[in-house]
Structure prediction request, 144 residues.
Amino acid sequence: MKKVLVIHGPNMNMLGIREPGIYGEGTFPELEAYIDSTAQELGFEAEFFQSNHEGEIVDRIQEAYGNADCILINPAAYTHTSVAILDALRAVGLPVAEVHLSDIAGREEFRRFSYVSLYAGKTVTGLGWEGYRVALEYLAGIGL
Ligand code: DQA
Prediction:
């Protein structure tokens, strides 16, 4: 079975509490359960990692080298700031799909640019949880 590493960045563990008008009322464990069942449906084994620390995310991406087939990432605020996460993704060279719950293009100016989009094969924004399904369908369709 193909393995997808699912990475979430800072404050994603606060889903359900943080700005529900933007991110919805579902909790983070509920979102991970949704991703897990969707991944299984599409033939993936999913592994999950969430961190509020940039370096820990870089470490986890590096560990994926030789241990995962692809990466699904919502880097959260690091999307807009982290050259280190972009470089780590490029370093391991695995296929990447990027997801954002909200429509980052329609919010504050500082959310419009994504470093990760410079590498990700697919970026899905503004679809809420459904965006993870679209991203997993992309990864399932690239012939890993
Ligand atoms: C987010 C969008 C980011 O701009 C924000 O910092 C997040 C969540 C999203 O899923 O919509 O934490 O990645």
